[in-house]
Specification:
Glucose Oxidase, domain 1, 2 domains, nine-stranded mixed β-sheet, two-stranded antiparallel ribbon, 15 strands, about 25% helix, KFase/CYL, arylformamidase activity, Putative cyclase, KFase_sf
């Protein structure tokens, strides 16, 4: 479903024209490292705190374990969890602690973007430039992201979350098919269908449910595995939503899919062109592989789609992304 206004033969031209319209370079000063998180200020956060009514909470994270969706693309693997000390060691008396005390310890090894996660501002470049126009080689080196590392926003990602359940609003049986390009019109139709609580405001964290994870879970239950969830065809944001993402002044946006934007991408030859605009030019934080199903059920039951949301990344110095366990409270 390629929007009529998009020429699928000219990704470079489309990217350049879009960047000319939506770039935020210099908007918060030449030294800025937080991009659109600047919209999520203390006033926005204080107003969002009043959204808690019932106290019902939802984790929006998938699990971090060896049964996850990764298949090795770009060396992304599922987490490897290893126990260092166990109850077996304690019972065998080999831990060497005094007066009968025992314990367990463990370690995990994983790519930082193997499950529910944030893309940081050092994750994607455009023609060798990173967020705010900096040369990419002066931002991310073998030592990590020394400028816009994910730790720079560790304390700010908490505020008003708004669920846009596009799967329910415009899809069939609550799901969008793989390859479905979500346009600005679809987003606006979803907001209209859901009502005033889904009005998008400056500084919001927008959650877009496509229903793909719901469909994948049915396959898992049937023994079919993850399929191509990690990197294959998927519903997602159309490239043409770049202007909406910029003009709405949201702080961040997350989806229940692996790659945020529609896959296959809408150009004949392209790879994640919306990332190429959104991260290095708009300065927008993208969340992927979020589990929005339980929250969506609760929102549909009472028609209230805005929540208090805290989604702090792990403050891993110099990281270009981070695992996250987002918590939505209604």
């Amino acid at each position: 479903m390629t929007p009529a206004a998009l020429d699928p033969t000219d990704p470079e031209g489309a990217i350049k024209a879009t960047v000319d319209r939506v770039s935020n370079w210099g908007r918060w000063g030449d030294d800025d490292v937080r991009g659109t998180m600047n919209y999520l200020d203390a006033d926005v956060r204080r107003a969002a705190a009043g959204l808690v009514r019932t106290g019902e909470s939802f984790s929006l994270s998938q699990r971090f374990d060896g049964d996850g969706p990764q298949k090795g693309w770009r060396r992304r693997t599922n987490p490897v969890h290893t126990m260092l000390d166990t109850g077996t060691d304690a019972v065998a008396g080999i831990q060497g602690f005094p007066h009968g005390i025992g314990g367990a310890d463990d370690v995990i090894a994983m790519p930082l973007q193997c499950s529910t996660q944030w893309d940081g501002l050092g994750h994607i470049f455009d023609r060798g430039r990173a967020w705010n126009g900096r040369p990419a080689d002066q931002v991310v080196t073998s030592l990590g992201d020394g400028v816009t590392g994910i730790e720079t926003v560790a304390e700010v990602i908490a505020g008003r979350g708004v669920l846009l359940d596009v799967g329910r609003a415009v899809g069939e049986d609550g799901e969008l098919p793989d390859g479905f390009a979500i346009t600005e019109e679809h987003l606006r139709a979803t907001i209209a269908a859901q009502g005033p609580s889904s009005e998008i405001r400056r500084g919001d964290i927008v959650l877009v449910r496509t229903g793909q994870l719901t469909r994948v879970r049915r396959g898992l239950a049937a023994g079919d595995g993850w399929g191509d969830y990690a990197g294959g065809a998927a519903p997602g944001l159309s490239f043409t939503t770049a202007d909406w993402l910029h003009g709405s002044e949201i702080a961040a946006i997350a989806t229940d899919t692996w790659g945020f934007e529609v896959r296959p991408n809408e150009f004949d030859v392209a790879f994640q062109p919306l990332h190429q605009v959104a991260i290095p030019h708009i300065g927008l934080f993208l969340g992927e592989m979020w589990d929005l199903d339980a929250l969506a059920e609760a929102c549909a039951s009472d028609g209230r789609y805005d929540v208090w949301l805290t989604a702090a990344p792990l403050p891993i110095t110099g990281a270009v992304g981070s695992p996250v366990n987002p918590i939505a409270v209604r």
